[in-house]
Amino acid sequence: MHFVGVDRCVIALSRVANGWTAGLPSGNLEVMTDFSMALNEDQLTLQKWVHGFAEDVVRPAGEEWDEKEEFPYPIVEQAKEIGLYGWEFMAEAMFNDPTGLSMPIAIEELFWGDAGIGMAIMGSGLAAAGIASSATPEQMMEWVPQCYENADNGKLALGAFCASEPDAGSDVGGYRTSAVYDEKNDEWVLNGTKAWITNGGISDIHVVVAVVDPELGSKGHASFVVPPNTKGLSQGQKYKKHGIRASHTAEVVLEDCRVPGRCLLGGKEKLDERIARVKRGEKGNAQAAMQTFEATRPAVGAQALGVARAALEYSIEYAKERHAFGKPIIMNQSIAFMLADMATEVEACRGMIYRAAWLGKNGSFQNAEGSMAKLKAGRTATWVTERAIQILGGYGYTREYPVERWHRDAKIHDIFEGTEQIQQLVISRAISGLRIV
After folding, report:
1. DSSP category for residue 56
2. Strand pairing of 205-211 and 159-162?
3. Are residues 362 and 410 in the same domain?
4. What does the alpha-carbon distance between residue 327 and residue 307 come to, in Å, rounded to a whole number?
5. What pLDDT digit, counting tens, does each position of 211-229 carry?
6. Does the annotation count 417 as an active-site position?
7. pLDDT tens-digit profile of 294-320?
8. Model's pTM, two decimal places?
9. Is the same domain home to 334 and 202?
10. Which of 121, 124, 176, 182 is the most exposed place for a label (fewest CB within 10 A)?
11. 269 CB-side CA count, 13 A
């Protein structure tokens, strides 16, 4: 089953290229919709479709690929075959639904199956979002499809968004990777090391945030596409992680990496104009990395939600079947009330994510609702999966049961794409109007 046709997706991608960037203020939207958590027919069909794939393909493979700590190419290939992994699906789900809910719906179901494999399937979307946040329409049409499929042979391709560095994760102003323009050859020369990069080094398309004017701090950043097989880009160390181990995470090393001038997202004229405005003390556009992160925070919240829901459902069924002292353990208030709290947190989390996704599509966030949703979801997933281990007792602490893996997978949502503390900082600034440090 393919979710959408190519013609509709070209239209959707064209709209994005002309201003429909996910989760970002986009002026007057062509379509406005009232907020509702009632899913329409298309969304219900999408939910059922993705859940079926997660149930039949992803969840049965979760333990195997977690133990291997390798990128699950066969599973991602299957996702590509049915149309779940591809720019057409991403364009339709991210940009062609005026409610903004399609992507969170799909992500929740996929991560319900397994977070590591889910990240392997969805990881290229961060590169696509990085392109969408800064690119010209022509760049959008050229580079986004190549994050998913080789332009020459149609084979599986990957994308990576390269922002964080070994000494600068949350501190975007501390980035040191440089981009120097070689005017004679119309090339940009990139040097530096990026850290904690999903799909880093194994991707066909790398989107790199680099410093073009060190004197301007984070306002002197720009984003570049590094095309496939570009000399000077290599994989550094691959990280051995606590969770989401099926997702490939590594350093990306750039050594005199030369890319054509056209690979500067947005173009040099636009960059020069922005830097000139900032130097005059005028307001410039939002920083490249932060634009991408803010756009994707409701989606990251949906990832955590999927993990939390998986643990909740498993715990309920286990508590019904497990007997102690002559009755199912769910008949004990200590267990039943724990499950009640877990269910309440999951439902509250979903409401915040849906609301944030809708706001991102219909007029932008008002009080950092994207950060609120991610903050809540990360905390919820970590807490719910910890409670699931408690309910299973000693069994929950073993790898024989999936809840220990889900607990390991959950924790990253308190950390990546802005730590829990960074979300609190963003929220506190939004609600106070003050530059809290």
Report:
1. I
2. parallel
3. yes
4. 28
5. 999 999 889 999 999 999 9
6. yes
7. 668 999 999 999 999 999 999 999 999
8. 0.91
9. no
10. 182
11. 1
